[in-house]
Design a protein that fits this description.
Blueprint lengths: L2 H24 L8 H14 L26 E3 L2 E3 L4 H13 L4 H20 L4 H9 L3 H7 L1 H18 L5 H17 L3 H20 L1
Antiparallel strand pairs: 1-2
Helix pairs in contact: 1-4, 2-3, 4-6, 4-7, 6-7, 7-8, 7-9
Length: 211
């Protein structure tokens, strides 16, 4: 390993350390607000209902006024109250809450985000400056530690586009790409917009290259 590579790996390790340090300083206990709080409530509901459904009974919100505490977006289905976010997110949150304290959601989100962005760095052989710009000058980091679904989406989209980018793309790569991007839609339906745009550009480029 040459000296330049060693410096790059050292920089990545420092960035990872700083990301955990900053999250710890922010204090994940106080990061539940608005959308993230709604997702947490939906996850607790799944846990309270023994993973049968995500209907909210508001019992665990008694100290905060019960159902009056709920934000806008909750609605009724057959007289059962439910939240606005996809149920897949609720089950992911409930699975974490089953084993850990709520603040672990942010740490797990950070770990998933770091896996995704580090994968992008090595797979696409990015310049270390590009890696730092992605990390510090875009909202990716702060959105990821605040929202588990964003962290997972970033990683899955990165994997999906990377499978598609293979120089010798075959059926398996297309299937893996479809699975990665398809799973993302369960978490963030709006991914179909920007991921679809990227895929369209890819096929236009590929078609132009072959012609």
């Amino acid at each position: 390993m040459n000296l330049k590579k060693r410096y790059q790996y050292l920089i990545i390790l420092i960035v990872i350390f700083l990301s955990f340090l900053s999250l710890n300083k922010i204090n994940p206990k106080y990061m539940f607000a608005s959308d993230s709080l709604t997702k947490y409530i939906q996850g607790v509901s799944v846990l309270e209902n023994n993973f049968q459904d995500d209907f909210v009974n508001c019992d665990f919100l008694d100290d905060y006024g019960g159902c009056n505490f709920l934000m806008e977006g909750f609605f009724e289905i057959n007289n059962n109250l439910t939240g606005p976010f996809p149920i897949f997110q609720s089950y992911l949150t409930a699975s974490i809450l089953y084993f850990f304290e709520p603040e672990m959601i942010q740490y797990i989100s950070l770990i998933i985000f770091l896996i995704g962005i580090t994968f992008v760095y090595f797979y696409w052989e990015l310049n270390i400056i590009t890696f730092l710009l992605l990390f510090f000058t875009t909202p990716l980091y702060f959105h990821s530690i605040g929202f588990l679904d964003v962290a997972i989406s970033i990683t899955l989209v990165s994997a999906g586009i990377s499978f598609l980018k293979q120089e010798k793309s075959d059926t398996i790569n297309y299937i893996l790409s479809g699975i990665s991007l398809g799973l993302t839609i369960y978490l963030r339906p709006e991914v179909t917009i920007h991921a679809g745009f990227i895929i369209l550009l890819y096929f236009l480029y590929y078609k132009n290259k072959k012609s």
